[in-house]
Design a protein that fits this description.
- The protein is of the alpha+beta class and about 160 residues long.
- Helix content is about 45%, strand content about 20%.
- It is built from five helices and six strands.
- It is elongated, with a radius of gyration of 22 Å.
- It starts with 11 loop residues before the first strand and ends in a 7-residue tail after the last helix.
- A hairpin with a 5-residue loop joins strand 4 (about 45-50) and strand 5 (about 55).
């Protein structure tokens, strides 16, 4: 790490701390040449391979903007979107791979989005699961209903 003050090509780590979210490490450093102190933040890189083949760093903001379109007109807040993006990032980091394609990111969004808003989930799934017909929508709705029926107590018992 180059010193930002004198550009010396080395520095010494004085202190290291894990960030609050546990996804990065903050290091306090000191330059052996000029004695200047500075902080760095280290994160494990997570790269996304776009359809064009171009690679770019994973961005929670891009997850949010993609999901925001599916949530238009739905009762979903910015805080909900931020939490969803965090869940998606944690899920893709847990896979242990450093490079994912955009389709894998889209698929990782589906679970948390389904929990957040089923209509937005259907909108988003229709793109990422390449729905071709009404049958695809009907199948997805049938799956949602089956999950609801399985999670709700039997109303006939009352």
């Amino acid at each position: 790490m180059h010193c930002p003050f004198c550009r010396h090509p080395d520095s010494r780590v004085i202190d290291s701390r894990t960030s609050d979210d546990g996804l990065s490490i903050r290091r306090r450093r000191q330059c052996p040449e000029c004695g200047g102190r500075f902080s760095t933040t280290e994160t494990a890189s997570l790269m996304v391979i776009k359809r064009s083949g171009v690679m770019e760093a994973f961005s929670r903001d891009k997850v949010i903007s993609g999901v925001r379109k599916a949530c238009q007109g739905r009762p979903v807040t910015e805080a909900n979107l931020a939490l969803l993006a965090q869940k998606v990032e944690e899920a893709v980091r847990q896979t242990g791979v450093s490079q994912l394609d955009t389709n894998e990111i889209g698929l990782a969004i589906l679970g948390p989005l389904r929990e957040l808003d089923e209509v937005a989930y259907l909108r988003f799934a229709s793109v990422y699961q390449a729905f071709d017909s009404l049958d695809d929508f009907e199948r997805a709705i049938r799956d949602l209903r089956a999950d609801h029926d399985a999670s709700e107590p039997d109303s006939h018992d009352r």
